[in-house]
Amino acid sequence: MFRNVTLLVVVAIAGCGPSARELRERTLSTLDTEADRWEGGKDFDSSATDAYGHAASASVRKGPLNYTLEVRSSGPDGLPKNNDDVVVTRTKRHGESSISEQAAKAAEAIASGATSGTIKGVKKGLGLGDEAKK
């Protein structure tokens, strides 16, 4: 009788841990909380640990208009970048757009060309400049 009770207690204790779904939800909550700390800069360090006991990783990628933060758990197997990973992302504008720089350069070139063309036109109209001498 004592053996049966002991076996029943051991089985009951072993089966009382969190489910896979609960562990995933806890990990997701941890990663979301961690990502919410990000202020939008190009650097971010994480010291978070997922519900599986593994350190989370974080990386920031710069795109043409935004920084994108990725906070990642390697999931239950602890192996990075496979299908059981839990990943949270955030995106924020960085204001350092290469598109903005290119647009500013193009506008400057257009303005410079328009000014140059206007001056040549005025000189021609007044009979001044190289073409008037011919």
Q: How is this structure best summarized?
A:
The protein has 134 residues and is an alpha+beta fold. Helix content is 47%, strand content 16%.
Task: Write up this protein.
With 134 residues, this protein is of the alpha+beta class. It folds into 2 domains: 20-95; 97-126. It has helices spanning 2-14, 20-36, 98-126, 130-133, and strands at residues 57-62, 66-73, 86-93. It has a 3-stranded antiparallel sheet, covered by helices on one side. The radius of gyration is 32 Å and the shape is rod-shaped. The model has no long low-confidence stretch (mean pLDDT 83).
List the helices and strands and how they pair.
Blueprint: H1 2-14, H2 20-36, E1 57-62, E2 66-73, E3 86-93, H3 98-126, H4 130-133
Antiparallel strand pairs: 1-2, 2-3
Q: Which regions are unreliable across 5 or more consecutive residues at pLDDT < 50?
A: none
How are the strands of the biggest sheet laid out side by side? 1-2-3
Count of the domains:
2
Total of DSSP H or I helical runs spanning 4+ residues: 4
Radius of gyration: 32 Å
Question: Which terms summarize this structure?
Answer:
134 residues; alpha+beta; 4 helices; single chain; three-stranded antiparallel beta sheet
